[in-house]
Amino acid sequence: MFGYLKYRDVILTLTKYEFKQRYRGTVFGVAWSLVVPFLMALVLYAIFSQLLHRTEYRILYLIVGIFFYRYFSMGTSIGLNAVTGKAHLVTKTTIPREILPLTTTLAYGLSSFIEMVILLPGIIHFGGDISYFFLLVLLHPIYVLLVFGLNLSLSAIEVYFRDLKEIWSVVTQLMFFMLPIIYPIDIIPVNLLPYYMLNPLVRLLNAYRDVMIYGKLPDLFDMIYVLLVTFGILLIGHAIFKKLEKGFVERL
């Protein structure tokens, strides 16, 4: 199933290419990735300040949530085009096709990690506790694997169903409100909370905030749950990708 991981040189080369392409033609590079989320945070803070006043480290709570969501939104929105956007590599080379969504996921995952590390001075300035910030190097790969599992399914389905891009844009917008970004979890009705917590991104976002601003170890049960769901998403993604890739060349 994971035989394509043997192509380390190809994976590294394509990941570097994807990473550079994201900032190609820009003067300030990764700095632009910070400007938009910060402006968005300012607007949302002004609008939803009453909700955020119920949280600790209000502005940090919001900023970490936005940067966390940003990787899900951009990583999957670009990732679903990983195969159709590189049709020439599918039709003219023999590299394993799984490498295409993998390198896109890795490139945007690296960009996301850099953005979050750059937040460190601001977190310190606003009084966040960074005692366990180093655990981000363990949390983020889990997030990358989760997004990769989604991208395997999305990129394969998109070859056959090109309207998926429009549908997924709606899904990512809905996910912004389905995650505790602009509100605290305690506003969720008690009877709905167990269903709300089924979303692994909710638990993973809590873990990010724990290590980035609260100085706490992530909840062990939450992390076990996220790992199990991530593994399941990866298995399903691989199964869908392998089943559908037989028709890639004809469809492209």
From TrEMBL:
Name of this chain's protein: Polysaccharide ABC transporter, permease protein (RfbA-2)
Superkingdom field: Archaea
Entry GO MF terms: ABC-type transporter activity
Span of domain ABC transmembrane type-2: 28-244
Transmembrane segments: 26-47, 59-84, 105-124, 130-154, 174-196, 223-241
PROSITE patterns named in the record: ABC_TM2 (PS51012)
GO annotation, biological process: lipopolysaccharide transport
GO CC, one annotated term: plasma membrane
InterPro entries in the cross-refs: ABC2_TM, ABC2_TM_bact-type
Pfam families xref list: ABC2_membrane (PF01061)
Subcellular compartments: Cell inner membrane
Membrane topology: Multi-pass membrane protein
